[in-house]
## 1
Amino acid sequence: MIEFRQVTKRYDSDHTALRQVNFHLDRGELAFLTGHSGAGKSTLLKLIMVMERPTAGEVVVGGQQLNSLPKRQIPYIRRHIGVVFQNHQLLFDRSVYDNVAMPLEVMGASPNDIGRRVRAALDKVGLLSKEKMNPMQLSGGEQQRVGIARAVVNKPPVLLADEPTGNLDPALSADIMKLFTEFSQVGVTVLIATHDIALINEMGRRQLTLDHGRLVSSRSAAAAGGVRGY
Amino acid sequence: MATDPRQKPDNRRGAANRAKSPLNAQARSYLDHHRKVARDSARRLWRTPVASLMTWAVMGVALALPLALLLLLNSLQGVSAGWESSARITAYLAMDVSLEQARAAAEEVDTDGRVLSVQLVERDQALAEFRASSGLSDALDFLDENPLPHTLLITPQDSARSAEGVRALVAFVEGMEGIDRVQVDLGWLQRLNAMTDILARAVWALALLLGGAVILVIGNTVRLAIENRRDEILVAKLVGGTDAFVRRPFLYTGAWFGLGGGVVAWLLIQVSLWWLNGPIERLAGLYRSEFALQGPGFDGAMALIIIAMLLGWLGAWLAVKRHLDDIEPGDIAGG
């Protein structure tokens, strides 16, 4: 579902964020992306979302070659990629419902459709009763779950998360991870960038480790089983 | 609506089916979206009434000024057109021409195909009229004899009322025997026409400049709106909003600014007309003219508002074009 072939990303002459990165994630696979700060985790995620283009190599998402993708097509690729951020990127000028509805609105879904799918997504993250509230009134963990609901509301085949548990305590982190596991079980490819070594070890999933832009370990946890849960 | 989580896969399929809905359903949701965006951007303007009103006022003044001049110009052109069509040729006969000769001359002119009618004003009659209208009767009593000649008032046919036609007719009358002088009061009319032509160009130049100013004002206002909604734009781009989707609310904002500005301009024009019409009627009355300032009318008001909305839309479009591309979600996902 996500494939990197010899991907190099150089920002300017003296800063190379990624060097010849190779990996492949299957449909329904859940993997962690780790590494020190500045190792290139965010760059890798940005390449998948076509926020950046690789200097060399190929990025393929869902069979689509992203290098040669015209700029006009970028929005349509992003509709197939859900993203969860550490700082949620929620809009505080509208309700939880309207926040989650945004990906459907940009697709031009009908209001009925939007209503049903937004409520299904909020139900999934356990926030159905708070749809009319402003995200500002919610706790950090709830805000993160709203962000997740927004990321999955249009059923993207790929889900990216950048430090999704960065500000959360271990119990809430475990909740969030459980959600991600459930998504991968229904076939969503999930890639989570995180520092949280304890969490990674507990999950026992595949781990992509970056060090100064190089992929130093791509330990496949296939033996552990894609649907083992935890 | 706390649905059982196990029902989710069904929901998912239902949604997928609906995504393949026929084209008209898509069109409907597209229109729904437009309506929603239009309503939402109008509501945003209402939420900051003072700022919106000021923008409308600026636009209104900038639009009302050229429009007022255009209306004035139109009224002036209406005046000259009216006079041109009633152009009359006055032929003064020589002093030694007798009444019989004058009658013969009038008949001769009347037989010409280009002439609609001829009126002979006899010199005695002319003196009597002059005495009555000028108030100089005492002074006239001192004159030994009537200083006024017989006069022919010639009204040309419609077909001969062009500038060349009148000129040819004048040449013909001048060539007749016993005619002393022929006068056509078109000179000042031509000067007026030349002046209105210059004025028209000046007004159009002014209209263009002020239209440009309107576009810039709206562009700047929309630029601020874009800055205020930066987060929203980032998120919309992140979740796959096309450029058109991101642009839309701002284009509507520009159009609403235009609508308000057009209405303000119309109000300004109406108030000015009401304010000026009394004095102008009096002035025109003194000149025995039918001149009156013409208002924009319903069509004009509609045209004004549509043009104002287009200008607003254009200003917004320029701002959006220039600033939206700068907002890319690249910097959203921190290091």
## 2
Amino acid sequence: MLGKLLKHEFRATGRVMLPVLGVLVFLTLLFNLSVRFIATTDSTLLRVLFALVIFSFVAGIIAAEIIALVLMINRFYKNLLGEEGYLMHTLPVNVHELVWSKIIVSFVWFTVLNLLIVLLIGCSALLLSGSDLAEVFLDFPEWSEIWQALREVGLYPRHFVLLALEYLLLIVIGGVASCLHFYAAMALGHSFANHKGLLSVVFFIGISMFFNILGSMLGATGMDNIEALFLSADDALSTVRSMQTVMGAAAGWELLQAALLYAATVLGLKRWLNLA
Amino acid sequence: MEAILTCKQLCKCYGSVQALDSVDLTVAPGRVVGLLGPNGSGKTTLIKLANGLLTPTSGEILIADKAPGPETKRLVSYLPDKQYLPAWMSVKQMMDFFADFYADFDRAKAAEMLERLGIKETMHIREMSKGTREKAQLIMVMSRQAQLYLLDEPIGGVDPATRDYILDTIIRNYNPEASVVISTHLISDVEPVLDDVIFINGGRVVLQSSVDEIREAHGMSVDSYFREVFKC
């Protein structure tokens, strides 16, 4: 049933996110065309227009992120805690499937949006610099020398691949934990009879404070260990291994937060559901 | 005959407020049951508990001998007293949704009923009037071949013509082997379609009987008897 929930969740969110992505692509094209054709003009009017295009491009990127965030919050609130909740919570699915469908779809949209933004900015930079930037990057004369030097100190691409994978894992778990922070706050806030919205905000702040305090308590011990770890690293390989350990610990911390927030969300929706 | 809905010493409290107090009742298959009581008597709470939208404080509620969960939700077709269909959906998307999640959803039957009301598949829920939305919701719910229909205030707040349409749709379309529980305080309107009644007041079941028994024992209609029992 998760597949069916995902299908309908993508249908519900796609009607907002696809036009947003389309507008971003359009603004990038507009920005690139403006740089090529009107940036160097002497006309005041065209210069004002150029400034407006740059402003729209930047504002468009910020607006797209805000829209994605509001959509994530609104879908959870309206679909699971508002009147649509009477439909969703009486489907023959369990609460875990409902929550995962929201997490997965939000995560996918944020990933697509951020990748598109990076791609559009990257493409713009490449286009504007002509072919120079690409050539500089690809024909970077020192690449082979750098790899050779790394090999000599015992570092091979696999070490960096592992580091990159750990970083990716950290981003994924961190993204899921961020979604769950909002979901848990709303699920707990809406378990009360009155002031559900206000209580959701209170829970959001309370959860943030709880993790900040817990994080700084763990961090105080952790920082000493990290410092000791790096100080004891006497060669390049052990430095990279120390980085991997730190990255793993950070992923573990995010995972702990995600697990606690997931449990709070499920508990709120399963045991204390209180639809208006 | 195995009961489709059973409550055993069912209690539900909202903080210090006792919404249901030691409710014991059974609903047999193939019956149309009126869950009758004044506003705030616990009707909606009982129906929400049966749908797994609330958790009992104590006691048990069972659908075909199982606690509410994904398995029982396959058996129950529920009409809440809310407009619960997503406003952005078109009628076609709404039917896709029901067909995807409920194996017992009869799409052809739903399409036919909607067409009879002049509701096109391309129409969006947000474009419908309140009355049309309520009819569309009812059509979705009654197009399932469920074992238990739980209808919460299906005729509350609608005009008499719509009321007739709703009751007619319920009676014409429910699965004859299934049970229908209709919660309402508009007794005279639903009385002609009921087999049994459950009177509920202050969270307690005060009477569970067949309509015929009430008429024979008290020599009056259910509506008149209700007025006597709940006289202020």
